[in-house]
């Protein structure tokens, strides 16, 4: 039963209003005093440079399945898998045993400059098999940002191997996109607010076209085919503006994650954009760090329409949070260019291809495959969509409910008809997240801003683990609906 179900509407309204007005964060306690914070089950860091220097955070003592256990005795339902990472939930014994076994060999780390590990090669074979052999090789990294950084370099080297004086220097990405936090990855990104402090440092050879956001861009009555044709024409025009011979590639997320809140591409879009790229000899590059590795109901999001990329980044669901690992999947034609050229990728990192990382990721992928968890993602994802639309579809401030698989977003608007976003200062998404994790509700929501124009706009992401059950989906949606109604009753 939802915790808030025990409260009357009036009581719920008063409690939520008190929480939001009195400087309460996350699990309901004030962050005004370190002493008070530490005695109430959470910590304001004195030594860690945390995400927010003025905020205290609840202390997690453990986790099992879909739950996190806090030091104050509360049990939190992890509705978001962290940041869409913990795809198998918490405390999976098979993965823990695989990591432990690798640690006991005495070689959790090996320098990739000198050595090869069987478990690393086995992981890469598993990943290539997961593409049905449509990709050829895997480059392992430690994070999604590193994977995108590596992809940018590899894409350039693809052309450099053929012609040291190649004119191909430009990338095309999309507005309101987010591809990582390293300078190269952030340079590819089109998220205005995240780029703003670092704009002088970012590449000036990255150009942006509009996102594929049907909710905010599609004209009334416009078909998928017509909408996609406009997007393809826009990319075609950008190629000609830059000079088609100067473009390295086009980069996009099949389902936009943190930047827009689970906005899926319109059917036919990926194929149309790939055709523009290949017509001009450029690479078609997909960022599946957040939307990939099963999150959208197929192992790779592109497999839903069988639109094979030339390069692809993967990350969060690769090892389910049990180890920090990400990767670049590389097509046959890119590998061939490297093999016929220098024979190497001119890039490297200390912590790439670590055996302990590979052991965790390999076990996570085996579990997904052996237990057919992609079917559960599709079945429970369809039910999650149905319940969200039933309970929140008519809410006056829920502008859009969109997603795929177990990757869903709610976009909030001030006016449902005009789609006008709330004032940024109101902090709508964060209020929803803080209220959700309070003792009133005890669940997580993943908040995001910039949804409407890169600065304004609020959304939350719902991304439960792949082991979620139908009964748990019912619980998740009921509590989220309570959270939404509670917060907007105070505004």
TrEMBL record:
Keywords assigned by UniProt, alphabetized: Pyridoxal phosphate, Transferase
PANTHER family for this protein: AMINOTRANSFERASE, AMINOTRANSFERASE CLASS-III
Record family assignment: Belongs to the class-III pyridoxal-phosphate-dependent aminotransferase family.
The species this protein was found in: Mollisia scopiformis (Conifer needle endophyte fungus)
Alphabetical list of SUPFAM superfamilies matching this protein: PLP-dependent transferases
GO molecular function, one term: transaminase activity
Superkingdom assignment: Eukaryota
Pfam families recorded: Aminotran_3
Recorded GO CC terms: cytosol
Protein name: PLP-dependent transferase
InterPro entries xrefs: Aminotrans_3, PyrdxlP-dep_Trfase, PyrdxlP-dep_Trfase_major, PyrdxlP-dep_Trfase_small
Keyword Hydrolase applies: no
